[in-house]
Amino acid sequence: MKINNKKAIFFDLDHTLWDFEKNSALAFEELLPKFGIAVDADAFNALFSPLNVKYWKLFRDGEITQAQLRYGRLKEAFTALNYDISNELIEEVSVEYVRLLPTNNHLYEGTIEILDYLKSKYSLHIITNGFSEVQARKMQSANIHHYFDTVTNSELAGCKKPDPAIFEYALTAANAQKADSIMIGDCIEADVQGALDCGLDAIYFNEHNLEAHPTIKQVNHLLQLKQLL
């Protein structure tokens, strides 16, 4: 069923358009040998991915700082692997990871096709909890920056999804009305419920086909958006 009367589409970036897991794995495959860290990259990535989600939720909920996010996810991964590493080296790895991560440019299958399709029909925007410089570099590296009229991040807005204030900030920046707008993202709490609580419509990018409330609009592949928009 088509969703009518929309003029503005707001996308999340990581885990929705930009393939964080693949790009993160590539960054660690390069930087672990660079620092002489003798752990298997696949084993490390298998641990790091869920830890990254855990620490981002803590950061989103205001329980930890950006510095604690960047340090803690690495520290806990190395600890789980019983790998002895100094705090100083963890800090160095953290800095290099943040530098390398956005140089990789893998997008979810169908990203460019769906953005081309939507761009002629809607104004497109980003709302991300990520940090300004890193997110800008990701979009430039993946060559998708030109699709979006505005990019709202937590640093600009002074708050993070699901806080209604970040959606209000993004709407103002986009000169868009709530009734005319829709949010698309991979996180039920931050993207979908956050948007709905603010009065925006929302679509859940449910890549892993997780159980979700039947009333929530969802797609499992980006190209399925053509059926809705």
Protein described:
- The protein has 229 residues and is an alpha/beta fold.
- It has helices spanning 20-34, 41-60, 66-80, 87-100, 111-119, 132-141, 154-157, 164-174, 188-198; strands at 8-11, 123-128, 150-153, 181-185, 201-205, 218-219.
- It has a six-stranded parallel β-sheet, sandwiched between helices.
- Strand 4 (181-185), helix 9 and strand 5 (201-205) form a beta-alpha-beta unit.
- The chain is elongated.
* Name given to the CATH homologous superfamily of the largest domain: HAD superfamily/HAD-like
Mean pLDDT: 96
Uncertain segments: none
Arrangement of strands in the largest sheet: 3-2-1-4-5-6
Derived structural class: alpha/beta
Structural key phrases:
single chain, about 230 residues, alpha/beta, Rossmann fold, DNA polymerase, domain 1, six-stranded parallel beta sheet, about 50% helix, about 10% strand
